[in-house]
Amino acid sequence: MIWIPRVFGALTALYGLSAIAKPGVLARHGELADPIDRSSAVHLASVIVGVRDLVSGIAIMAAPAGGVLLGALAARVAFDLTDAVGFGTLLPTPRARRKIAAVAATWAGIGALTMIWAG
User: Fold this and answer.
1) Residue 16: what pLDDT?
2) Tens digit of pLDDT for each residue in 47-62?
């Protein structure tokens, strides 16, 4: 069932594209400043997260089964865990910290689970 990690990779890449195209999503859920205000750096942060997710999603989709795919998935899990810790401790409100940390931790868990089918 190698398709399971591939679907996870595709969803990750699609999220990356959405973060690049619509930085307001991160701003809204993280309760951050409007990304139109370039001095807030929200637009920059969203693009950085988006590019990282796009590249890691493509890597998961393109990696050969086995160790290379496991490595790509492990990197993705590490990214999501650092998001859970970073956003979960540094966002401006407790509600935003809990929300983003929960979403990132859930994605890390899903990514770790897909390792079962990495072949």
Assistant:
1) 97
2) 999 999 999 999 999 9
Which two three-digit tokens encode residue 116? 């079962």
The model's pTM is: 0.92
Full 3-state SS string of the chain: CCHHHHHHHHHHHHHHHHHHHCCHHHHHHCCCCCCCCHHHCHHHHHHHHHHHHHHHHHHHHHCCCCHHHHHHHHHHHHHHHHHHHHHHHHCCCHHHHHHHHHHHHHHHHHHHHHHHHCC
- What is each CA distance from 85 to 19, 25, 32, 33, 38, in whole angstroms? 19, 19, 17, 20, 25
